[in-house]
Amino acid sequence: MKIVHGIFVIAAALSTAWTPMAGAAPDYPSRPISLVVPFPAGGSPDAYARIMAEGMAERLGTPLVVEARPGAGSSLGTQYVARSQPDGYTLMLATLSFVTSPLLYNSASWDAANDFDGIAEIATAPSVAVVPAAFPANTLQEFVDYAKKHPGEVNYLMPGRGTSMHLNSELLRLVADLDMVAVPYQGVPPGLPDLMSGRLSMTMSPMSLVGPHIKTGALKALAVAAPQRLQEIPDIPTFAETGFADAEVVSWYTIVAPAGTPPDVIDKLNQAANDTLRDPKVVEKLVNIGGIVSDPKTPQEVDALLVSEADRWRELFPKMNIQAE
User: Fold this and answer.
1) Which of 9, 35, 211, 237 lies in disulfide reach of 241, CB 3.0 to 4.6 Å?
2) Residue 221 forms beta bridges with which residues?
């Protein structure tokens, strides 16, 4: 019996005017499509999936079911999709963990480049490097200089092994050659009181979690891990602008399917996703949950992203001394 940890159904209005897109399988889709999220319901990946499912359902003329299958660092849901029939009826929302989990967990048995086909890129999710108000640094360079002068005394809030925030902090440690200690928490929110009190030195965090504390002055923003500055804090430079481009980690959200899914089905899903991303109302929803909406990508461009990211972290993990468990 299949155990479903969380299901959210987007009921699409079936338009009588709908006709199949050119080149697509004429009877696809003829039944509901499952969009698997390999994380708990209610989190950021779930929010991205629901927004996309609603828009794609309207354009495909069939319901999309957002199905949460969390567990083992996203491994359970990802392996479920990898073993599913490649018929276009089982898709997955993939994040950075899609390429890093096989390097972090011995139980992760998939290959991002060979076991899946890319469909669409949805958005990137920037993180902000923040320190307590009393910390003696106002820029990322000043933070690095301080950490070099105080080896082993600087620590950071680590909100989950293998998260983009963890990897960004570790990559900064590697690139800047810092002696910096990770302090693990179950997410960013539980560690914020310790950060604001000064018991922690720094963290990388989504703007949605630290923005209010930046506004009150309890936290100071040093730099943004994003391709561009954020509208909420336009005076804060990006990692690249501060000279630490090699330490930047940008979290991304994509939609993928099991390898071997028919190309015409992939193209039809890609068109539905990209048309959804052109909808101003959808863009507004994605921005409101902290995303920078991606320009429409082809399936081949999504495949290239997955390959390049997998290659990048496969090369970096040994240098960062991060071992699989």
Assistant:
1) 237
2) 130
